[in-house]
Design goal:
Blueprint: H1 2-17, E1 23-24, H2 38-50, E2 54-61, H3 64-79, E3 84-88, H4 97-104, H5 113-120, H6 126-134, H7 153-159, H8 162-165, E4 169-171, E5 174-179, E6 182-191, H9 198-218, E7 223-227, H10 229-263, H11 266-291, E8 294-295, H12 296-304, H13 306-323, H14 329-354, H15 360-382, H16 384-387, H17 397-413, H18 416-435, H19 451-464, E9 471-477, H20 480-499, E10 505-508, H21 516-530, H22 533-542, H23 547-556, H24 564-568, E11 589-596, H25 601-608, E12 614-618, H26 619-653, H27 658-678, H28 685-708, H29 718-733, H30 743-762, H31 768-773
Parallel strand pairs: 1-8
Antiparallel strand pairs: 2-6, 2-7, 3-6, 4-5, 5-6, 9-11, 9-12, 10-11
Helix pairs in contact: 1-11, 3-9, 9-10, 10-12, 10-13, 10-29, 11-13, 11-15, 12-15, 13-14, 13-15, 13-29, 14-15, 14-26, 14-28, 17-29, 18-27, 22-23, 26-27, 26-28, 27-28, 27-30, 28-29, 28-30, 29-30
Amino acid sequence: MVATLLVALLGAWLLFGRERSPIQTDLLAMLPTTERNPLADVAAQRLAHANGDRVILLVGHADDEQAKAAARELGQMLAKDKVFASVTAELPPFDLQQLVTPYLAHRFSLLTDADRQSLAQPGYDPKQALAQRINEPFVTSVGTRLQDDPFGWLQHWMEQQPWSRSPLLPEDNLLTVHRDDGSYVWVTATLNGSSYDDAIQHRALDVLDQAEHAVEHDHPGTRVLRTGALFYAAFARSDAERDVHRVGLISTLGIAVLLLLVFRSPGPLLLAFLSTAIGILTATAVSVLVFGQIYLLTLVFGAALLGEAVDYSIQYLTARANAGDAWEPRQGLHQVRPALLLALGTSLLGYALLGLVPFPALRQMACFAMVGMAAACLSVFFLLPALLQRTARPLSNISVRTALVLQNIVARFTAGWRGVGLAALALLLAVPGWVQMHHDDDVHLLISPPPALVAQEKQIRDITGLGNSTQFYLVQGEDQEQVLQREEALEQRLQAMTDAGQLQGWVGVAGMVPSLQRQRANQALLAPLFAQPDRMRQWLHNAGFRDADIDRYVQAWPGTPLSLQDWLKTPLAVPFRYLWMGDAAAHGAASLVLPQGDAASALLKQAAANLPGVTLVDKAAGVSDLFGRYRRYASVWLLAAVLLIVPVFGWRYGWRSVPRVLAPPVLGIGFTLAMLGYLHHPLTLFHWMALMLVLGVGANYAVFLREGEPHVTHRPGAMYASVLLSAITALLSFGLLAWSSMPALQDFGLTLLLGIGFTAVLVPASTAPRASST
């Protein structure tokens, strides 16, 4: 009892007593490592969390002034709460020229590809370029002064920078986009903590909701679009909590009613839940201690584990009920111990194989289940005998009679050649279902984000032109110069895709800081024009430039190259610093290039083909490929699990009995696959992992029935009644996962619902000869 109390206190403290909740709502953290290059996974994590604690809001209104007023009010309201570390709505007054000034010293090293091509032509006419620049229309965005850039080379280069390509333009100190349906104003807020901290989530969402309602009330017609990890994490948490409550409540009530009907006393009910609670609390404590956190999938799975963990106490309580006045706790434990140990061993085997998958969430679920099962079983061995000293009422007559009727029917139809014929017929009926089986390994089936939030995110991307993809290029080299050169080779191909309309654009460091090789080549192209300063002065003088401006421009040649390290220290580089991976690379340097738009993965791969040091990283595709690979292995694992169980059953029951004992779970698996095929339900890795558990649970039922039958000859049907009770409790818990909001758990639950159901009905066949003779 002391150990039980300590475990309960530890579990409660780990979940609720610490400042930060161990519940992990970051869905990316559940995904496995997929890339052969470890730096690619580091880059994926870095990219995913670069803006993870930032909330993006777009305030729209048909009237431009109303949109701007609403955005200012929203920003002011959010800034008042300390849950946000910073809020950016209204920008401090600044001159767009401030974006140009840092580049003036390097103006002769920065050329676009178009200008490079023009300068390389033998017939390049600088006077024509000068006249064209003078007659250009006024630039409304980031523009260079004519006297600083008379030929427009720097202006052309600036127009290709990310801040120049974005539809977001500063108006009245607000970043604004004008569309046919009105104006939209950009507002961002950075959380004072993690998006995955439940306390931060609740506080930030409350503040945001209140502020949005106030703005919409003060400015009728205002609409606020939102996106950010905060909203997805909060949705995932609320869905998981709802699943935990629903599965836990319904399964608890259902199991309670069943236990009361079968055992006809509240005592067994309380003791069964005590044993199960010990298992789940112990599993929770160990999982948090081992992994440092607990995933949403594990929490919902833990709520469903109630139906399997209660099996051990049910078998002990059944032995007590069947013993009548001859009950002796130690003798009862001696009676059920072999069955419980054998059942525990098969369950642990199934979960251990589940833990071999390199998927953090599945490994934690396997650890949770193994610890929970072992703790629940040990509680039966060491706790229940001390608490169950007195005799108990026998199992209810209706449950025993019903079980006996079903047991005799199954035993009669599965005995001898009749059983072989029926099995062959059932298998023939299953064949069309097997033929219709198909697979889907898309990682997006793992979760089901709210359509409204996905639609808002897409709308924000369409309006602002900002991409938000899990696809990116990792560019590696021996040093930063080589990385920039390789990135430039990639960007030439991306530009071709952009010109062809296959890509909206890209964001990369080399586009903002060319390699030194490129900068020297740019200076070399301009050198002939500046070789004779007097000729340059004459060109500018004839074009109408003042002598002082001419002197400044000519004396600025050749300028200095733009250094990457110097650029990274400038305010302009702040939004893009995460693209440079130099510090994260163990050997050499690396950077990220982000394609913008929804280009096909095949086209993006083609852009990186045969480019040394350039790798397309697609986290979603990588995880999907990994799921597919392990799904294909799963059938081999399932066969391996069956083969591992065979010698155990052969040692215990004799080799001739092994096929009969294994028939219920194996046939249950086959019929489940057939039903999934008939339902046109695409198979995933989670279906196969659930089939592992069907094998373990089904083997448990065969063990319980075969081991317990000799002890209930005075009351036929009593043992199968306890097996059916165990199966129904499992269906009430695991089966409810079929209605989970998480697609992965839906697959898990549906498979277990079908598999356990088939196995529970077929399990009397494991003792058919004995049942038919009685």
